[in-house]
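Give me the fold.
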Amino acid sequence: MLKLRGGFSVIEALIAVAILSIALVGLVTTIGKFSSSTVDRTVLNCLVDAASTALYKCQAGIDANPNTTCGSSTVSVTGVSGYCAPATGACTTVTAVATASPQGKTVSLTTQICNFN
């Protein structure tokens, strides 16, 4: 008569460990991809905020420090090109370029500033 043994054999245990390790590698890879894309989105949000703030300040006639820090990134607005105070009844195109130093990402925003006084 056959006796049933309790527990797993060594082969069954090795197969279970192999399946778990493959699943864990997939999970760790997915988490890494999500975290890097989150960092990229955060840096791009900082760049858009810095460039749009520079354009608003240009429109208001405020000259401010263009360098800001966002997390571990230093964001600098390299320059606002265009004339911020157009003549009465005229419009001008103004562009602000923001760059994040460690990541090397750049965002450029352009707007029209008009003077109807």
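Residues 10-60 form the longest helix (51 residues).
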